[in-house]
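Risk register update: the risk of archive-format incompatibility is retired. Evidence:
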Amino acid sequence: MTVPSYLPGKPALAYDRTGQGPAVIFLHGIGGNRSSWRTQGEALSGHFTTIAWDARGYGASDDYDGPLDFASFAADLVRLLDHLKIEKAHLVGLSMGARILMDFFPNHGERAATMTLCDCFSGFEATLTPDKQAEFIRLRQKPLLEGKSLAEMAPALVKSLVGPNCSDDGRAALTESILALHVESYLKTIAASVGFDRSNDVSAIDVPVQLIYGEHDRLTPPAIGETLLEKIADARLGIVEDAGHLSNLEQPDRFNGILAPFLDQHASLATSLTL
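Archived output:
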């Protein structure tokens, strides 16, 4: 993993920055970290400034005291934008990262040039079936509370998330990110995610939105993306063939083939940064 820059304050947050041009900020999922976006950062860095963070309690970022208020992620994103002097950014989030953006937009929508929401739900109980809700908890929280290690938990979690033809590299990248989790912060994030619901707010999103879903995503299938497509005025839906929930890791070229044209089309809406 690269040596990160740091956003000062409490908690201090680690981030990678590459390239120059309109700002694109990547937000990882609940089992990820900033390295989850490495191939996207490399692909876009010729025309954009790409920034990928470790959310609070993840990767090289600091942990924090007390339970997680999910809104703290949005407050951290504002801190990052202010620190880098970014008035507007293209915001890209996968799974938990996309939920952060749904939570961010109602209070800070003026800072979003576009949003790309990937493999996500807008409300835990409102969107996921009871079976999916139970599976979410069973695979993530239950093993750790029973004393299992991240290494013991990882194989079943990886299997549940990736598509049937995920490459060895994709599986290895996901496993590596799971093994790097901060257990206590991860458990806090799971608890906060169970109470997450922005289902009634997504129709107010008034910037261009790219929805991206993996063809074989069992946790958040493309049907959820189709529902969001109907609710968001300026949205389009791209399906990553032969990918599961971690579509950007499993099929990076296909994922980038959806993301890059969307960002190119709207590039000028975001603040440009130089080295």
